[in-house]
Amino acid sequence: MDIPFAHDLKAAIRTIPDYPKPGIMFRDITTLLGDARAFRRAVDELVQPWAGAKIDKVAGIEARGFILGGAVAHQVSAGFVPIRKKGKLPHQTVRMAYALEYGADEMEIHVDAISKGERVLLVDDLIATGGTAEGAIKLLRQIGAEVLAACFIIDLPELGGADKLRKLGVPVRTLVAFEGH
Ligand code: AMP
User: For this structure, is 173 an active site residue?
Assistant: First the structure.
């Protein structure tokens, strides 16, 4: 279900049909990020259920999850942890394969990014099939994180990603939903 003022947030997101390939409606958040009011509202709404809660770390998924995750971490006075495509992080990492629409890829986190039992919020811009976020949750749990929730501005509910995460025992917060892919 959309949050109050979802219409304003939705209007700030640009849709590019057939990008990066035919049939995909690309939901471009650069227009939302460039709109000061929409950016602030999105960050405020993402963290609203955890107002006053103790959060140790916010983990963001490369690359749009870094922009949102950094702002969310500041908002909740938590540290920020990047989850990156393989080969980008300089220190010792833990690696996890994850499913893409066609094929698979691998993501990494620094092995010492999170201490055992730390309370972590996962952030990305959009959840589609949930393959990317599922990989991130597994990585976080592998290094001892307690994943409090996963937060996304955009849900594509027909692709079932949010339900997939809930089945893993992770509450999901999304702000606006779009039909289709
Ligand atoms: P998934 O693993 O299927 O949940 O895909 C989520 C990841 O792919 C996120 O990091 C999104 O940024 C990106 N993504 C998937 N579909 C779209 C779309 N229609 N528009 C923009 N980004 C997308």
Answer: no
Query: At 49, which helix (H) or strand (E)?
Result: none
Ligand 1 touching residue 130 (CB < 6 A): yes
Span 50-85, pLDDT tens digits: 989 999 999 999 999 999 999 999 999 999 999 999
The DSSP string of 10-42 is HHHSEEEET-SSTT-EEEETHHHHTSHHHHHHH
Residue 58 amino acid letter: V
Are β-strands 119-127 and 146-155 bridged in parallel, bridged antiparallel, or unpaired? parallel
- Nearest ligand 1 atom to the CA of 98 is 2
* Ligand 1 atom with minimal separation from the 161 CA: 4
Structural fold of domain 6-177: Rossmann fold (3.40.50)
Question: Whole-structure pTM over 0.85, yes or no?
Answer: yes
Q: In one letter, which amino acid is 98? A: Y
Extents of the domains making up the chain: 6-177
pLDDT in tens, 157-177: 999 999 999 999 999 999 999
Is residue 101 part of the annotated active site? The answer reads yes
Q: Does ligand 1 lie within 6 Å of residue 64's CB atom?
A: yes
Percent of the residues in the chain that have a pLDDT greater than 70, as a whole number? 99
Atom of ligand 1 nearest to the CA of 124: 10
In the reported structure, the alpha carbon of residue 120 is separated from the centroid of ligand 1 by a whole-number distance in angstroms of 21
